[in-house]
Design a protein that fits this description.
The chain is mainly α. It has helices spanning about 10-25, 30-45, 50-75, 90-120, 120-130, 135-145, 145-160, 170-205, 220-240, 260-290, and strands spanning about 80-85, 90. The chain has a two-stranded antiparallel sheet with strand order 1-2.
């Protein structure tokens, strides 16, 4: 499937994910955030990357439990006291605020997962390498730093296990020593490859002249139409948020979370915004399935 959401122009993709991150920060309402999470999971599942969510689920649960538990313990604002813990009041407002923070963080994490799959390295460099080549390279390297180190550490662990070096076996002292050995090998490997990459780029004259692009991304009619729709929806969401729509007022006094007319208008715009990639990807998935 080469004509799905991932095949859109880099400007369209970057606009979508930038607007989604902005919406996740501005629309602080459980209904908005939960809707965004569900539709993002649908998009990731259609693109056959649901396994990534399952692998990251323990981390998400750990972060979520920490937020939901810690916020009521450190914030005692609110009028509705549920119970007392160590002579400290646990309020309904603090619990709801922690849950809403959890939903907002989950939406941002899922946005990052989908972004890493759809906005590839060549698309990112296509957008920013001509303007700020050095800064674009640093940002790209920073984005791939953690996944790259995880893959290398997995390879190092498998190789060193044949030599009896493992952090899962032996006494605590042995596991600590073996862990330091694995980290040392990882750092040496990463620094050596970084020096080789720097020498290679310097020899090729990177950054000395205006950068050219090997992959040419042309914006067709569909890209222009979707970019226009996304832009209009982003402006509408930003204006609605500036007017106070789509926000759950929890502190200092919790207000009703029932939608008004303005909230429904903003909610429809938000749903349409998130449904655009789902429709594009779903249409391609159906075409691929029934063409066999």
């Amino acid at each position: 499937m080469t004509s799905g959401f991932r095949a859109l122009h880099p400007i369209t993709l970057f606009l979508f994910y930038g607007g989604l991150l902005l919406s996740g920060m501005l629309l602080f309402h459980p209904v908005f955030l939960l809707t965004g999470i569900v539709l993002l999971i649908v998009l990731i599942s259609i693109q056959k990357h649901a396994g990534t969510i399952v692998r990251m689920l323990p981390l998400y649960l750990l972060i979520g439990i920490a937020i939901v538990v810690i916020n009521p313990l450190i914030s005692h604002r609110g009028r509705h006291i549920l119970f007392y813990f160590m002579d400290q009041p646990i309020t309904l407002e603090s619990v709801l605020y922690g849950v809403t923070m959890l939903l907002s963080l989950t939406l941002i994490l899922l946005t990052s997962l989908s972004y890493n799959y759809n906005v590839t390295t060549d698309k990112f460099m296509y957008l920013f390498a001509r303007l700020v080549p050095q800064s674009a390279l640093v940002v790209m390297m920073a984005l791939r730093f953690v996944p790259l180190l995880r893959r290398r550490l997995t390879q190092i662990t498998l190789v060193q296990r044949t030599r009896g070096i493992s952090v899962h076996e032996g006494s605590l002292t042995k596991r600590l020593k073996d862990g330091m050995t694995l980290v040392k090998v990882l750092l040496v490997w990463s620094l050596e490859e970084a020096l080789q990459s720097a020498d290679s780029m310097k020899a090729r004259g990177y950054g000395t002249t205006k950068r050219t692009t090997y992959v040419v991304h042309r914006m067709d009619r569909r890209d222009r139409w979707l970019t226009g729709c996304l832009s209009v929806l982003i402006i509408g969401i930003a204006i609605g948020s500036a007017l106070g729509w789509g926000r759950a007022v929890i502190y200092p006094r919790m207000q009703s979370m029932v939608f008004g007319v303005q909230d429904w208008i903003l909610y429809i715009c938000f749903c349409l915004y998130l449904l655009i990639p789902v429709i594009v990807e779903g249409k391609e998935w159906l075409s691929w399935k029934y063409s066999k």
